[in-house]
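Key idea: predict the complex, not the pieces.
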Amino acid sequence: MVLIASVTVSDRASAGVYEDRSGPAIAAWLATAVCSDYAHVSRIVPDGADSVAAALAELSDEAGADLILVTGGTGPSLRDETPEALFSVIDKELPGFGELMRAVSLNEVPTAILSRQTAGIRGRTLIVLLPGRPTAIKTCLDAVFPAIPYCLDLIGAGRIETREDIVASFRPKGG
Amino acid sequence: MVLIASVTVSDRASAGVYEDRSGPAIAAWLATAVCSDYAHVSRIVPDGADSVAAALAELSDEAGADLILVTGGTGPSLRDETPEALFSVIDKELPGFGELMRAVSLNEVPTAILSRQTAGIRGRTLIVLLPGRPTAIKTCLDAVFPAIPYCLDLIGAGRIETREDIVASFRPKGG
Amino acid sequence: MVLIASVTVSDRASAGVYEDRSGPAIAAWLATAVCSDYAHVSRIVPDGADSVAAALAELSDEAGADLILVTGGTGPSLRDETPEALFSVIDKELPGFGELMRAVSLNEVPTAILSRQTAGIRGRTLIVLLPGRPTAIKTCLDAVFPAIPYCLDLIGAGRIETREDIVASFRPKGG
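Result:
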């Protein structure tokens, strides 16, 4: 069974003083777009490179997640350390994810260039850093998800199928 | 009082054999676009990672600059070491600045892809690497400045207001 | 005499179980687009950071190549280590090459964001990582080659002239 994890990075949501709306937004998007079977787990962790890195390593190595979607902590603020966490656990960075997410977000807000979103591979797990706001999450998932099923094929992760009318996923050569 | 610094990186301008036109171009752009109070200091330093890094650290740590705009030294030539200087002094890189500056410059010259422009955060200072030529400086400032006031807010630097008819700065939630 | 090298990175082509079509595609593109004199050498090496790094260093340091065009090994798969090889031998990365190659490839396939293509400088050699498929090679060379002759000028490599009707190379100030 394919396992997709979402990780909400937020001091306030983690402390329970703020309701997490970003994790549920990811779950709702997946429920609409992915038509093959998958299990979904979610985590809420405080900001900080160590807490995020620990969650990513556990979900990849112990839980065996095929895909981890992270929301929050990619800005320029002092507590925004999600990219540093990613860099400390991945084997390879895939800079095209960040370039495309910033490009599509730039059509909505000029501050999109402040985002340090990116993606990377750890073993057989693809990890993608999404923005924090629910509407921006949808914009970014719509943009990059067409490339995700084939990426999972290439790294030996599980197979995902998407609803063609929602996300036009692409596999070269009918793979 | 908000402090904005400009740093011209050039062996020839630093030696006085060549008049610096890039620093004054930045000063003129700021005078037109920024309508809140600010002080402006300028430096001219020779090429080289050490000289540029020293200037950036001094302006950030001693002078307390909120924003440092650097011009020159971002090309592929042997003496172009401004990005190496930046990488040695920043806490976080903001790759969206370089992506956008190259994208808008690419509309003017195909050699825009040779530029290693980028931006980064050191403490409460935002540092942006601009191109060397005055006309290219304007192109790049027009493109990225709308995101700069909110970035300064996020890192705890001073507040800047811009003239809306010149630069449509954006602060989410009316911040 | 300007020396342009092509390096095909492929376990199967290197073992002779698969005919290399990518190296010849590069050679054919060059023959059409470059109108000044140049020599061309080609190599086929297996995947892996060490084998690719050794080929790049030898072609730059021993053979004195002005330009090295590499095809293959830039994807997210386990054996795709061409970017790691590049990072281990270059003095400076030029991220604009990868950004532009992914942007133009994205017009053809959404999986373009999976590519880790980029470029870098080693001494007086420019090294560009191209995609593996021949049609994608042409798309990327068409996009980035206009900036290559001027880049070679800047790093002290040999002078290349291109056919203006094929590749509109650009040299500022008529350089």
